[in-house]
Structures are given as structure tokens and as C-alpha cells.
Design goal:
This protein has eleven helices and nine strands. With 255 residues, it is of the alpha/beta class. The strands form two sheets. It has a seven-stranded mixed beta sheet, with helices on both faces. Helix 7 runs antiparallel to helix 11.
């Protein structure tokens, strides 16, 4: 499976505030389309479209845009906000399009959340016309100054158990294995500045921390919050708290 029912429910619930939480998707979406260099009129398929960060940028480039997402909530909002985009609910590993249907396939921050990214890449290759381009963005897996938060989550919630994260090098390997040319790759930085530890807590709360804390035994939620503020304050400078995020962009064509 490339998408789980749990994942669909998660993104359905986040549809209204997705780009508020994931502040970087709009900027990286624009950069990804610039990186893909689609010609005007290109038939572009955006997979895992979410609220349309990549799809909107593709429209601005003059593309004819089709967007798919596994979340019905995301698709409904995207279709309502941008009727000029053809939006459908589909799984990345089972695209309901004929072969050779598109000139460009994009996927912003999608492959890292798939249980079978190779199945999705095979579908991307199938629906691309000869000479077609695929362009993907991937979160850089760096803990950096947030190591204390990683340790805090492990202390209170245990290990992730989700396997090794997808790396940029491995994604390039998967693209070649799927039949694409060796990819071109660039790194980008996407920092977020927050004025205080309280602001950092409020931002993370949008991602569901209160729900997670509600599952802990009595007293543990308060202990987590106390340790969180100690760790967050340790990052604070006169400029506030800077969260260091990053991504890689990958572009390849049919081999």
C-alpha cells in the first residue's frame, strides 16, 4: 500500500490549516515548478497535491494542471479553491490515467510518507509521455538543534518504529531503478523564525501535540510540557527561535 487509511484521515483533518502548519510548502512548491522548467501548455500532473502549493505554481507557469491526492478533504478544498485545476482523489501507487498522459509529473513532500515509494515512481513513469520530466521535493532528515525534542518524544512516546527515513541519495537510486535518468539534485534551506517558546508550542500544537499528550498517563503531559519549555528556551536568542528545516529537489527524465 502507498497510502494508509490512517494517513488519509490525518490529512483530511488538516485540510483547512495544512499550509499554516507546514509553512514551507508554498515556497518550496514554487521552487519545485521553477526547477522542473515546464514549457507553457505542458500537461502537468501533481501527485499528493494537498492544498495545491505545487499545482498553483504550475498554473502560473501556464501548465494544464491535473492534481491528485489520497485525502478526500484535500481534494474537495483544492477543487473549490481552484476550479481551473482538475482535482481527483487517487492513490499515488494506483493512478487512474492512461499511459503517456502527461509531460511533467510533480510530487511535493510526498515520497517520504509512502510505504512503497517505488510503486509510486513506477506509476509516474507509466503516465509520463516519452521525454517527460519528474520533479520531486524531499524533506532533509536533519535533527540539528532540535535533538532535544527528538529525545523528548522518544522518552514520552517511545521509538518511531517506522523504518529508516528516505534519504536524498536513496531517492535518486529509486528514480534510476524506476527507469529515469540520473537525477539532478539541489538543496534548499527553509528556516522558520518564532518569537518565543510559547509561539513554538502553539505552532506544534496545530500539528496535534494536545491529542498525543492526552494519551499519556496522568501527570506525564505536564512533565512533557515542562521539559519542552526548558528545551525550547535553550534555543532562544535575541532574535527568537529559528527552526532549521531543509529540502532537496530532484529532477529526472525518462531514460
Amino acid at each position: 500500500m502507498t497510502s494508509t487509511e490512517q494517513g488519509r484521515r490525518k490529512y483530511d483533518a488538516l485540510a483547512d490549516r495544512y499550509e499554516e502548519i507546514y509553512f514551507y510548502v508554498a515556497d518550496v512548491g514554487r521552487r519545485l515548478v521553477d526547477f522542473a522548467e515546464p514549457p507553457p501548455g505542458a500537461r502537468l500532473l501533481d501527485v499528493g497535491a494537498g492544498r495545491g502549493a505545487v499545482a498553483r505554481a504550475a498554473l502560473a507557469h501556464g501548465c494544464v494542471v491535473t492534481a491528485v491526492d489520497a485525502s478526500a478533504g484535500m481534494v474537495d478544498r483544492l477543487a473549490a479553491d481552484h476550479p481551473e485545476i482538475t482535482a481527483r482523489q487517487q492513490d499515488a501507487g494506483r493512478l487512474d490515467f492512461p499511459s503517456d498522459s502527461f509531460d511533467v509529473v510533480t510530487a511535493g513532500f510526498l515520497v517520504q510518507v509512502l510505504t512503497e515509494p517505488d510503486a509510486a515512481l513506477a506509476e509516474f513513469r507509466r503516465v509520463l509521455a516519452p521525454g517527460g520530466t519528474v520533479a520531486l521535493s524531499l524533506e532533509r532528515q536533519e535533527i540539528g538543534r532540535l535533538g532535544w525534542l527528538h529525545e523528548l518524544n522518544q522518552e514520552f512516546f517511545g521509538g518511531g518504529g517506522g523504518g529508516e527515513p528516505l534519504t536524498a541519495a536513496r531517492l535518486d537510486e529509486l528514480l534510476v531503478e524506476a527507469g529515469f535518468t540520473p537525477p539532478t539534485q539541489v538543496e534548499i534551506d527553509i528556516p522558520k523564525s518564532l518569537p518565543s517558546a510559547v509561539a513554538m508550542w502553539d505552532w506544534l500544537a496545530l500539528q496535534g501535540i494536545p491529542d498525543a499528550l492526552a494519551t499519556l498517563p496522568d501527570g506525564h503531559a505536564d512533565a512533557f510540557k515542562e521539559k519542552f519549555f526548558v528545551g525550547a528556551e535553550s534555543m532562544r536568542t535575541e532574535d527568537g527561535i529559528v527552526l532549521e528545516f531543509g529540502a532537496t529537489l530532484h529532477r529526472a527524465t525518462l531514460a
